[in-house]
Amino acid sequence: MKFYSRKLIKPEDLNARNTLFGGALLRWIDEEAGIYAITKLDSKNVVTKFISEINFISSAAQGDVIEIGLQFKGVGTTSISFSCEVRNLLSKQAIIEIETIVFVNVDDDGHPTPHNKTLDNIDIQRS
User: Fold this and answer.
1) Cβ distance 83 to 50 under 8 Å?
2) Where is pLDDT greater, at 124 or 88?
3) What is the CA radius of gyration of the chain?
4) What pTM did the predictor assign?
5) How far apart are CA 63 and CA 99, in angstroms?
6) Separation of alpha carbons 23 and 54, rounded Å
7) FRET partner for 78 with CA separation of 20 to 30 A, picked from 26, 60, 64, 108?
8) How far are the Cα atoms of 62, 112, 113 from residue 55, in angstroms, in the given order?
């Protein structure tokens, strides 16, 4: 798992319990995974198709720094998939785990379209 971005937890990211609001975290994950899909498919025309069960393990508090990690899982004709882990930067304690996030390459009308990438020509090492 490579950790690509970090976020500082600010007051506007908190819920009523003064811990990290899950919706804010999911927004950041979706954005980071979308950027990752764009870089792997060399296409800006990708959309979130599926996010598997989300396992909230622990939380974060104001002032914590978290990091979002993604790992390539597979590629289909129109899709690409990853797993995700978010953890506290300093303690390395897991905050959330997502087994599968799938993005689909779409045409101008929003219909799935082949991205012409295979395991042989996709650069899974590139950041």
Assistant:
1) no
2) 88
3) 15
4) 0.92
5) 27
6) 12
7) 26
8) 21, 28, 31
